[in-house]
Structures are given as structure tokens and as C-alpha cells.
Design brief:
Elements: H1 3-9, E1 10-11, H2 20-29, E2 48-49, H3 52-55, H4 84-91, H5 100-111, H6 113-122, H7 124-137, H8 146-151, H9 171-176, H10 191-209, H11 212-221, H12 223-235, H13 249-266, E3 284-288, H14 295-302, H15 306-312, E4 328-332, H16 336-345, E5 355-358, H17 365-371, H18 376-382, E6 395-398
Antiparallel strand pairs: 1-2, 3-4, 5-6
Length: 401
């Protein structure tokens, strides 16, 4: 194989799970990213290469939702009384086990039931959509719970090495899977796009390895690393299932953690956990805004908060919908009718109230904030800035009053 082909087949590594030891440390200290006491946001491994036999599949046969795919986008009606946990339990298919790593995570969940419940509650806006897509594709229901392991269901989560979103994609992996990333938009955080990319990728990994536990391990550690472990065990006459492979410690804890969570969902009372009452119903709906719009304006029209719209549309990095994408917003299902009615009456000139300010030589955040009658804190938050240093020639979004 020539060098060019090898480079094309090189896939960036994806997020690595906390090891059992790291899990104990984070549980005991209560430290973790995004205020998560269980420390569930984990660093990702460095780039690893897809095995040659699998690489070609990744460029074909991706399954995406079509206009006639049943989904929460168009479906209407009264929310059913059944909770989503019942549908999840009915779709669990991954093999059970009694590995020590599974018992470790079950013990951790048992000791920290509140952290488990908070993470699951955080997933309320997303879990119905993810479960729908998993079910429509005929995949194991456990995959709908993978964002619990990856990000604790926080689409704004970012790992120390740059993995982002519910599914914790690295930038190179996201670009490889077709997720756009620019100043306005990050597809890794988009609820719809990132979910499709993750399920595409997991499906292709399962096609490569023929085993869901190995596919999950490859999602975490990289397919080449898992393939090498399989080949090593085969040469040594050892079993080639997940439980016997010489994988990184982080990966050896990744799959057991998901299985442990599945066990908790199946029998929550056994672990002193009361699952949050999440209905098996649409939380959001897609609305074509027929043009760019300010999230502050959209929130006012919908009668909801700006934070709620950011929670549903985390891929939008600025206060304004991106200029180079379809004019789609996710709106709480309960607010759809009033939003559409008010949007239809909104004058064109009132759609955007925020300002895109080009930074000039000598500008400071304080001076810009004073000029536009806002605050430095707002400028930092809206523009995702970690400090007050700004660069002439770049842009800032200044929130409207």
C-alpha cells in the first residue's frame, strides 16, 4: 500500500473512557468537567488508523433520515404516558456479563445515584430523538445511552484534548464524517447532525468487526488499535472477544460502563436509583425560519429562554443562525404553534438584533462593550472567549439590547 493511501485510511482517534482507577478518583474527589461530580468527560486517544478491510465501507452506505422518515420533526399528537425507559428496555440486545469492570461501575452508580439521575435528566431533550434514530436503524437500544458515557448528555461538553458535543467527536474525525465546523457553527455539537454521524460510524464499525462490543471499543480507542489486539490474540491462540483483548485501560472500562448503565435502567431499584420520569414523547420540533434570525429574538417569539434554545441548538456558536446553512431551528414542541404564529408576523428588519463587529486596531473588549452598551462578560460568553485578548481583523458578535 502506498503512503498516500495509508494516509487516507488513517482515522483520528475518538474519545477514550475513564479507566476504573480514574473513575474511582473522580468519584471520590467529586471533580469533573462541566460540573459533573462523576468526571464522565474523558480525554481521547491520539489518531489511529482504520484497518484496510474496513476503510472502504466508511465512504459508502451511510444511512441518513429522509423526508419521509417518521420522526419527531413532523409527528404531532398528545404525549404518551409511557416513559422512554420502557422502550429502551425492550430494545436492549447487548450481551450481559459479570465482569469485574461492570461490577465496579455498578458499585459507583450505587454510591452516587444523584449523579446518575442528573446526567439522565440532562438527556431529556435529546434521548427521544436519539432513541428514535437508533430504533429506525435497527440498532441496539444501548447505543442511545452512549452519550451518557461520552459527555453525560451535555452537548456543550468539551474534553481537554478538544473532543466536543454529546458524542465527543474530535475535529479531524468530525471533518472525516462530514460534520461542518466554522466560526458560526460546529456540527459536533449539533443534536441532529452529530447523532447521525455517530450512528453512521458505529454501524460501519459493526460491519467491520461483526460484534457490537468490538465496535464500541473501536469507537473509543480507534479501529486499528482494536484490529491489532484481535490479530495479536489470534496469533497467540487466545480468545478474540472484547473481554480477552489487550486493549488500553480506558477502553476496557468504556464498554463495561455502558453495560452497567443498561443494568441500572433495567433494574434501577437494585441500585437505589429512581429514574427521572422522561416521557416517550417529542421534546422538540424543527422549524424553518425562512431566513436568518437572532436567537434572542427567536426565544422571545417562542416564549422560552435563550438558554433553552442554546440547549436545543448547541451547534450554533454565535447568537445568530449561520449564514451558510439551512434556516432550521429546534424549538420546544410545546412552543411550536406560538412560535410559528409570531414568526409569521415578525418584520424582516427585526429578525437580527445582534451586531457583527469587526475588531479594529486598538479596540478592547471594554471599549467595545461601552460603545454598544453591553458588558464584557456578555461579550466573553457570546463569543466563547476565554480571555479579554482580541485580534484586529477578526469579528465579535455583540448581543442586541
Amino acid at each position: 500500500m502506498n503512503t498516500t493511501t495509508t494516509k487516507l485510511l488513517w482515522l483520528p482517534g475518538l474519545a477514550m473512557a475513564l479507566s476504573a482507577v480514574a473513575g474511582i478518583a473522580s468519584l471520590s474527589t467529586g471533580r469533573g468537567m462541566t460540573g459533573d461530580p462523576m468526571g464522565w468527560i474523558r480525554p481521547q486517544c491520539a489518531g489511529s488508523r482504520m484497518p484496510d478491510s474496513c476503510a472502504a465501507d466508511l465512504f459508502t452506505d451511510f444511512t441518513s433520515p429522509t423526508d419521509d422518515t417518521p420522526s419527531e420533526y413532523t409527528e404531532a399528537g398528545t404525549a404518551p404516558v409511557v416513559e422512554i425507559w420502557d422502550r429502551l428496555r425492550g430494545g436492549f440486545t447487548l450481551p450481559t456479563g459479570n465482569d469485574p469492570a461492570i461490577r465496579h461501575y455498578l458499585a459507583s452508580f450505587n454510591r452516587h445515584p444523584g449523579a446518575v439521575v442528573r446526567a439522565l435528566q440532562r438527556g431529556e431533550p435529546y434521548l427521544f430523538h436519539i432513541m428514535n434514530r437508533v430504533q429506525q436503524r435497527g440498532l441496539p437500544a444501548e447505543l442511545a445511552l452512549l452519550p451518557f458515557v461520552e459527555s453525560a448528555f451535555d452537548p456543550h461538553a468539551t474534553s481537554p484534548v478538544g473532543a466536543a458535543g454529546l458524542w465527543q467527536f474530535m475535529p479531524d474525525t468530525a471533518a472525516y464524517l462530514g460534520l461542518s465546523q466554522n466560526w458560526w457553527y460546529d456540527g459536533r455539537r449539533d443534536v441532529i447532525d452529530a447523532t447521525e454521524a455517530a450512528l453512521d460510524y458505529l454501524t460501519q464499525l459493526h460491519r467491520c468487526f461483526g460484534d457490537w462490543l468490538l465496535a464500541l471499543a473501536a469507537y473509543n480507542a480507534g479501529s486499528a488499535r482494536v484490529q491489532r489486539a484481535v490479530e495479536q490474540n489470534r496469533l497467540e491462540g487466545k480468545p478474540v472477544d472484547f473481554w480477552h483483548l489487550p486493549l488500553p485501560e480506558e477502553t476496557r472500562g468504556y464498554v463495561p460502563k455502558l453495560i452497567a448503565l443498561r443494568n441500572v435502567i433495567n433494574h434501577p431499584s437494585d441500585y437505589h436509583i429512581t429514574l427521572p420520569p422522561l416521557p416517550d414523547a417529542h421534546y422538540f420540533t424543527r422549524v424553518d425560519t425562512q431566513g436568518r434570525i437572532d436567537l434572542q429574538v427567536a426565544a422571545r417569539l417562542a416564549g422560552t429562554t435563550e438558554d433553552e434554545l442554546k440547549r436545543l441548538n448547541p451547534g450554533i456558536l454565535r447568537l445568530i443562525t449561520p449564514p451558510d446553512r439551512p434556516n432550521i431551528l429546534l424549538i420546544p414542541k410545546a412552543r411550536e404553534r406560538v412560535f410559528r404564529e409570531r414568526l409569521a408576523r415578525l418584520p424582516e428588519e427585526e429578525r437580527i438584533q445582534s451586531i457583527r463587529h469587526r475588531i479594529l486596531q486598538g479596540d478592547t473588549l471594554g471599549a467595545i462593550a461601552q460603545h454598544y452598551r453591553t458588558t464584557v462578560d456578555k461579550l466573553l460568553k457570546v463569543n466563547h472567549l476565554e480571555g479579554t485578548e482580541i485580534i484586529a481583523g477578526e469579528f465579535l458578535v455583540v448581543p442586541g439590547s
